[in-house]
Amino acid sequence: MLMTKFKAAAAALAFAAAPAAADVDLQFYFPVAVGGAAADTIEELTAQYIAENEGVNIEAIYAGSYQDTVAKALTAARGGNAPQLSVILSVDMFTLLDEDLLLPFDDFATSEDDKAWLNSFYPAFMENSKTDGKTYGIPFQRSTPVLYWNKEAFAAAGLDPNTPPTTWDETIEMGKKLTLRDDAGNVSQWGVRIPSSGFPYWLFQGLTTQNNAILANADGNEVNFDDPKVVEALQYLVDLSKEHEVMAPGIIEWGATPKAFFEGQTAMMWTSTGNLTNVRDNAPFDFGVAMLPGHERRGAPTGGGNFYLFKGASDEQAKAAFDFVKWISEPEQSAKWTIATGYVAPRPATWDTETMKSYAADFPAVLVARDQLEHAVAELSTYENQRVTRVFNDALAAAITGQKTAEAALKDAQAQADEILQAYR
Predict the structure, then answer these.
(1) 70 and 167 share a domain?
(2) Is there a contact between 353 and 314 (Cβ–Cβ < 8 Å)?
């Protein structure tokens, strides 16, 4: 675990006098696995906050992946040493509530200005941030999956390089033209790549949403895994490889997907808008970004992490943590974060800044995920979330690898999830 004192970074910002001892010390758990630019930008922003708020010191604990971060936060909390704030997946809200670890932001947003701020985030992101009339998460490192396509590959296949697929059928039709095979049948370029490892349920939720299915209720205690529309979506995913042969067979790795795109192994890919800056910096060809193709409707899940306030903090610590979260989500700070990482600025006010207007004018692709929020739904989130999503991911893998039919895999997953969630109904 890497730890860093941001006060030292603040001092390096040309403050000549050594800062006085902090009146309030905060611990901040951050999932550093999202990439170097994210960690560097968090450090810069936090150093700026400390420099502007004498008496506050923030120790960032870089806790690894999202899964590592929630595990370490839970372990620390159970040992009586919870952080005061952390960025953790929005879908872990029910898990944190089940452990009785969270403070609602509503308790601190008492002024009219604070209340206006609390209501200033995109509604699609707030679906995974509120329950029972209370706000427990503040959207920060948020995303949706989007479609990236190689314009040069499209042109070489005789397709309009500026027109990506907008439907499931078009994905298949274009995918066939984009899949390149030699005389022996060896594929050098696949039409499309939809990862099925890492976060398989998340990208698959794009398909279920497009087929007008909702995977879980808002209370986090019911799932609809065996809905016929979910079965149909899974069959479509399987058929991209088995029937239509426009996607590689078997489990497709999440982490290797951008590299496969850069190297021409796939002409299209589905991945997070959080990869947007990475793609811009590393794609050796002209590329496009679009909303996910639709079917019965457009649709995608939201994703990513929220800020959470943890119980166990002193009044001074809790107030300072709240103030920091409010400050870092203000438009200028949020704009800096979005430009550095590609994550979606979660407040309309950020997009109204001259900073973001200028950036979007130069790089219009950044607007795609924002505009897709109109069609977005809450990411799959339940009580016992990691157990339930593991059951669902296993079902997807069983169908993708041919161990079970789509219908049988999802029927089994429904039964297992029902057993897990029965206690919360």
Answers:
(1) no
(2) no
The verdict on residue 377 lying in a domain is no
Apex CA 256: angle with CA 251 and CA 261, to 5°?
105
Confidence of residue 67 (pLDDT cuts 50, 70, 90): confident
66, 305 contact by CB (below 8 A): yes
By CB atoms closer than 10 A (0-12, 13-18, 19+), residue 224 is: middle
**One domain, residues 319 and 389:** no
| Containing structural domain, residue 319 | 2-143+303-372
What is the 8-class DSSP label of residue 87?
A: E
What is the model's pLDDT at position 121?
98
172/240 Cα distance (integer angstroms): 7
With a cut of 70, say whether residue 32 has pLDDT above it: no
The CA distance from 37 to 381, in Å, is 28
Asked if 246 contacts 237 with a C-beta cutoff of 8 angstroms, the reply is no
Q: How many domains does the chain have?
A: 2
C-alpha 352/C-alpha 296 separation (Å) is 32
Instruction: Tell me the two tokens of residue 59.
Output: 């120790």
CA atoms within a 13 Å half-sphere pointing along the CA-CB vector of 95? 20
